[in-house]
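W.,

You were right to be curious about this one. When I first looked at the sequence I had no strong expectations either way, so I just let the prediction run and decided to look at it fresh. Below is the sequence, 93 residues in total, followed by the output.
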Amino acid sequence: MVGRPLKKIQCESYTRGSNFTKQCLCKGYFQKTSGKYRCKFHGGFSTGPRSLEGRIKALRNLKFLKNKTEEEIQQWIKNKIKQVSYRKKPSTK
């Protein structure tokens, strides 16, 4: 809220730089889940869709998967997972 610093609702988190003694000075937005005010830095972020149906729904918005069927998208996801698992290097102890 520009020009009204006394009316600004601040983030209710504490900064690590002050050893958790000083409150964050950013503008806070109400979080429905916790019932507290958090800024864009302390509010957390979405982890994305977890279920297969949610992933398919999100991937349908991509240009190259727009006109694909659900089975084709599932196959694409499985191939992508296989590629990532092949890239991982084995841990050496």
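Here's what jumped out at me. Strands lie at 29-30, 37-38. And, maybe more interesting for your project: Residues 70-87 form the longest helix (18 residues).

Coffee later to discuss?

I.
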